[in-house]
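Continuing the series of single-chain predictions for the mutant panel. This is the parent chain; the variants come on the following pages.
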Amino acid sequence: METIPPPHIYDKLVGSLGWEAASRDPQVLESYSRDDSFAKPLPPALVAWPRSTADVQLIVRFAAEHGAPVIAVSSAPGYRQRGDTVPTRPGSLVMDLSKMNSILRIDRKNRVAMVEPGVTFGQLIPEVERQGLRLLQPLCPRKGKSVLASALEREPVTIPRYHWDASDPLLCTELVFGTGDLFRTGSAAGPGTLEEQLAAGSAQKNPMGPTQFSLFQTVQGAQGTLAIATWATLKCELKPSLQKVRYAQADDLGGLRDFAHGLLKFRIGDELMIMNRRAFSSLAAGETGDPQGIMPGLREWLLVAVLSGRGESAGERVAYLESDLAEIARRSGASPETGLDGISNEGMLAALSSACERPWQYRSRGACQPIFFITTLDRADSFVGIARETLRDSPAYLRDFGVYIQPLLQGCNCHLEFQLHYDPKSGAEVEETARAFTSLSRSLMEGGAFFSRPYGEWAAGMFERVPPETIETLRRVKRIFDPKGILKPGALCFQEVSQ
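Parent structure:
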């Protein structure tokens, strides 16, 4: 039976951190009790705002001593969609890392940035651009989204040609385990302190190790159940000096698949993605635009590719990339376009590379519940068919779902995302969308979708398909790094708190 620490126990932690670094105010607790997902609301018992790694260790050790569940949060409040920051146990302690928001280093020579967990896309994007770099980032991320959290959660990046490993752009990390112990991964593990490593010319860019154990891959995608990251280094690339957007449209997804395969095979273009008309209109509308005004002139499916060049030869490079793109289009039967009515080259580039105030998927009806998983490009059409069949008796606003396909790993697989748009002010639409979310998620799993980031109710469905020996191995790993089971209990396959 679970035990809940009595309220006065949390006063001990508040006294250690300082009253300005923690709160038990009911209004504050309520603000952390829910998000934009369909997760059941539950307020925490305390919210703490650490300002240093030492504070994080103090909080974790306190939680381990008293059996208080810890939920780590690092992004700015609002627009969270996955339920992964909502407490699932009474007496939980929310550790909000947003005040650990220092950009520790931007290294243009080695194309790497070192950031604390509270650094957001809105904060980091302009800073790396000033250094002639750009981030490997998700599509139009929210300005308040934690850059480190995005990398830890393996959110899809928009440039498949630079996506060499599933872990990119995450490099080295500093971690606090469920015991309060500190550990650094990759080349940051040593020898020497970080200052000594920098003096010796190290950039903390090699994520592998120490020795043959690449721990950063173990904690990546673990949803905060194994460790809490207090900083990380992230891979960057040089900022282009010339970019041109090219489009292709088709009435069915198969009409663009061969074109995309050809571009991916020869690494033509930087940003590369496929969307249906609904998703593209939401992206292209911008922060204040109307997606409905963009949709009428579009065909059902669109491919977007960005050709880039740098330095004195930028024009020559873009010219030969245009020639190669035209040849691949001819072979695959696609018809590339240099522009779309009402959408400027600059506007589309801004949508692809900047950050937005709220998720771009919300622009259609005010809210959106995404369903995303990993598959291969040749199977995407069959999953679209599953979605249409599952939602065929749903209201029109659900049948008009968005689809976003992001090739990854240089085209070896892709992120496939279905977007269920609804009006958050309508109780009926919220309930109907919640039912559709569960139904479609189940149908896609049964159809072979691989939910590599199984949040909330997805976890049970995915781990039903995992061999018992694998689950037991994962639980053994949990007991090693979090022996008291305090870090986000109940997530993934860690349904019981380890003793």
